[in-house]
Amino acid sequence: MAHSYTPGLKVTDKAIVKKERRLPLKGDVLVKVGDLVKADDIVAKTELPGDVERLNLAGKLGVPPKEASSFLKVSIGDKIKKDQIIAESKGFFGLFRTSIPSPIDGIVENYSDITGMLTLRKPPKKVEIDAYVNGKVVEVIENEGIVVQTPATFIQGIFGIGGEVKGELKLVAKSPDYVLTKNDITEDLKGKIVIGGSLVTSEILNECVKKGVLGIVVGGIDDKDLKDFLGEEIGVAITGQEEKGITLIVTEGFGQMTMAKKTFDILSKNDGKRASINGATQIRAGVMRPEVIVTYDIDTIVEESKHAEMGMDINSIVRIIRQPYFGAIGKVVGLPSQLQKIETEAHVRVLEFEFDDGKRIVLPRANVELIEE
Q1: Dihedral of CA 66/71/72/75: which sign?
Q2: Where in the chain are all domains bearing CATH 2.30.30.30?
Q3: pLDDT digits 0-9 by tens, 82-121
Q4: At the top level of its lineage, which domain of life is listed (predicted)?
Q5: Is the CATH number 3.40.50.80 carried by domain 307-372?
């Protein structure tokens, strides 16, 4: 049988999920291999150097740079408080002194007798990372982080914005093709992750933010609505750093896109359960997909997906990731072994794709991604 491999978009009720939790720079890991952790448990911590503040000490005192340091009332390395007097001129006969208060809490880091600049540094910023999901620590990355493993429902979207949030899933859509309305976004959704249907608009997203909704999982969004909500164009090279008060995960594509029945059914099954979601998306090198994770008890037995070993073959379910059929889901009905010429004049491997209505098209294999069972 014809057979090939293509990157998989996972939509599965049960899978073994591994998540790496890594600090931005070296620090302390607080757990060890074999430990069971909860999603909110802090597993590693470090400190980022504080921001630098520079004072033109010589200029403020009105003296040459080489003389200014003699007026300091603190030493290099000293801790200081905001508004503390850190330098003071002698004045005339003890009068008309010039006092220099510290603009920040921090430490005195350096003085240059060439430029006359005094360098102060704000306190370090504490950075902590949590486990993100319930699970078991299966690896410790020395001084950097850990890998957590857990059996879980695992759904990857095609596009998202916003970072990691954790909250209870709340089924709001009545069907996979349902379009959310303003009336659907009620006060009791505060702190929840909404399961939508086929479309979310900028109006609904703004209403969600207003009502305190943490996240929303939906089939599609119009690119104009996305721009209106964000206030700017956004590329799909990498997202996840947006600070708009909500995390959005789009499961199908741009425009009004009925959520895949399997995805909707799995999400509906988990209504009321706590989920961890992340809208970060990276399409190019180092592909990263937005995700929804609902963990099971750590002892739950999970069979590995056949696609993890077999890749894509006849009857595999795939999603098109290029225009003009972006987001369409169907099955593979043909995998010709010979290369075929496409519109760009390139010769590539292709597949025959069948839509739900029976229509068939031929397209490059690189234009689809596998939806793993």
Answers
A1: positive
A2: 307-372
A3: 999 999 987 655 566 889 999 999 999 999 999 999 999 9
A4: Bacteria
A5: no
